[in-house]
Amino acid sequence: MMILFWFTDVYNQIIIQKIVLRNNSEMLDWYLNPPFSPIIKVHVFNYTNIEEFVSGADKKIRIEEVGPYVYEEQLQKINVQYNGDTITYYENRTHRFIPEMSGSCTENDTIIAPNIPFISAIPNVAKLSFFSKVGFNTLLSLTKPEEFQNIRIKDYFFGYRDKFMDLISKIKWDFTPEDVGILAPRRGISKKSVTTNSGLKNTDTIGEVLDFGGKTKLDIWKTDECNEISGYDGIFNGPNLIRNKQNTAVFLPELCRSLPLEYSKEEVVYENIPSYYYTAPENTFGKPSDQITNKYYCELKSVQQEHINGVLDVSDCIDGSPPIYASHPHFMEGDERLFHHFEGLVPNKSIHNSYAYLHPRFSMPVLGTSRMQLNLKLSHHKHYYSNYPNELILPLAWVETTSDVIPEEFKFKLYLSTVIVDNVEIILKYGSLLTFMVSISFHFYTLRNNFRIHHVTLS
Asked: Taking the alpha carbons of 324, 330, 332, 335 in that order, is the dihedral positive or negative?
């Protein structure tokens, strides 16, 4: 028994079995219908001096961060196919604006922001036929879209309709006005399925992402390693990896790739629950060099121009291939070229980095915040945007997703599953050691008495 508890992982495996996603289990129901809702905080960039910049009066574009606009996100996994050791599903998300957490911000606020659908359409015009290009230019003459718009926050987040969008949706690939918006891609039913491991055969693989959109391998990145679908779903993050304080990775469908999390330290949260603190490593979006090591660096096949450190081109991951770039908020850790034409960007690692407190045994987030900025690359088209640097990357907004609001009942379960269970493990281990020592002592005592009896008999 002592060998079983001290030199094997049997006790941990018994406990880990409780989180295996078995069919019709409470754990699977929790996985498909999470008992609490993430909080989404959106910080948008307001372009305050566009007229002055275009006229030449100002040399740099001045942007002002506005927000946060706070939403509760309801997440449910639907169209579920349970195949024993795998689970395939689509995600369905809805959002509810929370005025009391948004301060003075309302969805009726207006900002000046880049014309996302227009800028998104420009680089794709080159892919159209001759007659479609003529149609596009005719459309511009008819609708005269603005380069920057005075737009309501709710429309900017969730999409809207105007003459340009209604007309371009008739000639442009796979496009609807409702697709355009900061939160639009994460609203409603996801367009691609995700398949994860249930942990039924191996508990260390629970939550591992195996398939995305019906594919076990992508074909948009330049290397086979980047095209491999790997990492975990973020609900589970590799129990064995986390237990041993190793680094892990989370697969992000919106980026079509995995991003790393590095172990940092042990910390106690909620006053009495131990956890392991993980953070996004430095240079997450940096190209490997003599100064930068980044095995998660990826480039799209379609990209020919030089990579700029600090941003990731994810255009081919999104339907319609809009020129979207992901980055840390305020281009944190980004190349100086990203900042050159702007005033108002102030990166700060303490408020812009992503982190997670992971359960030491189950690998689930106890607390955590993910922060990601959306950016749009501007390209010239005829006389449009000719007053701006070509291929300028425009910051749109950064989105903060936090799981800090957890019900008391769930906190209590976390406490039971850590402190109490760990203490039981210690008792069992040292109890088995004590039993072993007593047994050995009794054995030697018996041998000694037998030796004495044998010695007296011989005498």
From this structure: positive
